[in-house]
Structures are given as C-alpha cells and as structure tokens.
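[step 3/7] inverse_fold.run input=structure_tokens len=68
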C-alpha cells in the first residue's frame, strides 16, 4: 500500500511539473488578461453587493419580527 501511494504521488509530481501555463502568457501578451481580470472583478463585486443587500433585508425582517 505504501509503495502504491509513493508511486501515485511521484506520478502526480511529474504531471504537475510537465504542465506549463502557456495560456496565461499568450493572454498577457495579447492584453486579454486584463479583460479576464475585469470580468472576474465585476462578477465578484456583483456578488458582494448582492450579499450585502440580502443581509440588510434579512436584518430589517428580523427587526420587524422582534417588534411583533
């Protein structure tokens, strides 16, 4: 069992070293990486705003329930 685990870990190590990230270099050279980053930031900011608005609505509903 120990030998199998060792071989498996060595195999994953070889795979991780063999994969170079060429896509990021190509996108960076074309200037498209900024588009990807801006889209991800827009999505993240939208999610944060949505969560904050839901939190405010829940807080307001909890206050109304406590008053009744």
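[step 3/7] decode complete -> sequence:
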């Amino acid at each position: 069992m120990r030998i199998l685990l060792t071989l498996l870990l060595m195999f994953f190590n070889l795979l991780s070293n063999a994969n170079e990230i060429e896509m990021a270099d190509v996108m960076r050279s074309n200037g498209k990486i900024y588009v990807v980053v801006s889209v991800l930031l827009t999505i993240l900011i939208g999610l944060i705003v949505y969560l904050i608005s839901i939190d405010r609505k829940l807080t307001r509903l909890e206050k109304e329930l406590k008053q009744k």
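[step 4/7] annotate
The chain has one domain: 2-67.
Helices lie at 2-18, 22-30, 33-67.
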